[in-house]
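Example (one chain per record):
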Amino acid sequence: ITHLSGYVLTPTGEVEIRFQLKDPMDFVTKLQDNNVSSKELQGFVMHRFVKKEVYFNIILPLPGEYCVEIYGKKENQKGAYPHLCDYFLHYDGSEKRSRAVSEFPKVPYGRYGYTKGSRSLGVRPKRYPDPLLHAQGELLITFTLENNLDIIGELYLQDVAKRKAIPVEKCLMAEVDESTGNFIIHLPKVGVYRFAAYSRAWTSNGKYKNVFNYLIYNELAKEGIYGFPTMYQGWGQGCRLLEPRCMSIPSDTNVFFGIVIPEATQVAAIDGTGGWIYLEQNKSVEGRVWQGMVATGSVKTDVRVAACGDYHGEQYIEVLRFSVIDSSAFQEESRITSDMFNLDGHKQIIDSMRQKEADLKAKELEILEQDFEQYSQLYREFEELEIERKQTIEEVKQSNLDIQSVGNISEALSVESKLRRQEQYLKMKETQKIELALTLSLISHNSSELEATIKIFEEFNTRDTDGDYFNALNAILYQKLKDDLRSAINVREVSVLHNSIESIDKSPVAKTFEEYDSDVPIARRVLFSLQRVQRLRHMMASLNEHAIDDITVPDAPTEYYTYTRRVLIAVFLLLGRGGSENDLQQWDTIRVLLQSIGGRSIRRQCVSLDPFYLDVDVAKRAQELLHDTEDYQLTHPIAVLYVWAMGMASEAIDKHEDHKQAKIFADQRKKISNKFTH
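Predicted structure:
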């Protein structure tokens, strides 16, 4: 396809030669130089398969003259490799290299892309058919699997000094189901990586076969906490880590865990002191997420996740392990999360939280209806009691008159005795009235009425025979905590809301009411969203303003303009800049807008944007534009803008849904509460 002549002049020392294939082939190559042995040059040539083509990539380490020899035969054909062709390569060094000289990470026969094993087992790349990738700190690589396969991966970084590939640990997360294998990869250093995928039948105990090899040029370091937790044997097919998606978590705080382990019957997190926190399974969302808040404990300990279930018996086995680091060093808000590749995971967590809220709201309305029935019955008793009390008061008055009119002592004593019995009966009725009034106030969920009744109860020094007085005091305390929580939700500050939730978590009073109260789960979801917005803002703040200015790359491929335009239109729509969408259809218009606003101003506006005030129709249109770019490998600044725009749009849509659901629930609750008033 390229280089029909046998002579190749390269000013940069890099050569790519392409051939069309009629049938699957196996190749071997040899790079020759008069001054260096072919063994020394073996790592500077490789080949890769893309659909029905083969690409030969050669890096010439020093200026000079080289020869590359290509040998090949049909796949699975026995015997020696016939000599197919040679190319004479001349590297004159007239242009600067685009990257430092590095050998290719070693693979069998120098072959990248699919292997014989991929076709025999039924493994096909879904996201990137070309095994040569350029990354900006992270990647999502997806395979389509046939015949119920298991798939694992290994990541290597080429060490230029040692001239060999070094394994990279805790930077790879596998998520495998029956038909798909996803690998989320974090690349901690700039350099050349090899990602190797291995597969076997899920029920097999045999060796894994190498099915695909990727060559990755990473141009952005992703250091620090950006890796993944250690995974153990129990982490298998169908398992997914939704949160936290990092290998280290901050000390002395609560972290939300969301994990899918399909065959597990119990899942627990074990902190550094050996304390067990059992996660709750939310069966209402697809995948049945095990979730809950986990106390992380002290620095230099580990939080382990263990599970038991059908696939490994009743005994708990460890599946994940997170290291705990100092919270001040963690800098949660500064990390660029894997939201780019985990939008579905984020949505699953939000949907799971919403479902729990909906269940609690339904239970709250059900209890409110039941309380109204009880309230109606007790209120009728209260009215009857009030009639009896008034009759007794009239009888006491009459008895006082009778005492004054009697003519002898015996009649006076008899009337006085009757008066005392009536007064005792009246006191009993007064006590019953106060106790019943307290019960009614407790059932009515009316704080001001409850406080007034408690005051009367205390003034009469009435005994708490049924525990309602104690429950009423707890209800008032809990209501004050909830009032603070609602204020914190309205303030929408991470630290304020976190402290308010923590106050409720630490209060023993809250445990009495949490079974049918949706306010705390709502607050947790709002906090989760605020933390995500905070991360998105810091992600944008860390983006170099000049990277935005340089988005208009000269001579870029057509796809670059198409997908870049969609991302930028979405960004400008969210920022309210550039007029309507129709005004932004031309690339020249976008280029002028970029230049007139400038990278610094765009970054500042993105950081300051509050999704709470975004128009939901604008957010939905931005999301539609961004969905069309999901399968394209975006360059770094565009990828960051994509993550920010998709995150802000989804948060705005979530807020709109919140308002709609809150209004529906408020109307339902008001309808029932009005019955109490009537």
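Caption: The CA atoms of residues 339 and 485 lie 28 Å apart.
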